[in-house]
UniProtKB/TrEMBL annotation:
PANTHER family given in the database record: FAD-DEPENDENT OXIDOREDUCTASE, PYRIDINE NUCLEOTIDE-DISULPHIDE OXIDOREDUCTASE
Transmembrane segment boundaries: none
Domain of life: Bacteria
SMART domains: RHOD
Annotated protein name in UniProt: Rhodanese domain-containing protein
InterPro entries recorded: GlpE_sulfurtransferase (IPR050229), Rhodanese-like_dom (IPR001763), Rhodanese-like_dom_sf (IPR036873)
Pfam families: Rhodanese (PF00581)
Organism: Geofilum rubicundum JCM 15548
Domain Rhodanese: 38-130
Lineage: Bacteria, Pseudomonadati, Bacteroidota, Bacteroidia, Marinilabiliales
Amino acid sequence: MKQLLFITFLAIQQLILPAQTIQELSAEEAHAFLEKVNPDTLLIIDGRSKKMFQSGHLPNAINIDAYKKNLEKQLTAKVIPHKHLFIYCTRSTRSDSIINTLTLLGYKGDILQMSDGITGWKEHEFECIVPEQK
C-alpha cells in the first residue's frame, strides 16, 4: 500500500511540476533556430568572462559569467522570469555550470545549449557583435 501511495505521489508530482528540457544544438543548428525565433521569447546567455564577451558575442546576448561568485544571484535576477533560454560559452564547460546552477535553483523552463559554443559559431563566420571599446 505504501508503495502504491509513493508511486501515485510521484506521478502527480510529474504532472504538476513541468520538467526542465535541455537540448544541445550545433552552431549551424543554433544559427538556423535563432534566425526563425522571436528574440523577445528567448534569453540568450553568454557564460564567458566579460573580457571574452566584449571580444565578440551573439546578437542580443547578455553576459553572465559562469565563474563569478554571484552566479546564483545573477541567474535569479535575470533568468527565472524567462521561459526559454539559449546558453553558450567558448565550448560548453561554462554552459554546463550555468545549467547545473539553474537546475539547483529549480528552473523548469526550456534550455537550448550550443554544444560547440562561440568557437563553432565563429568557425562558420556567423554574425558576432563586438562592442565599441571606450
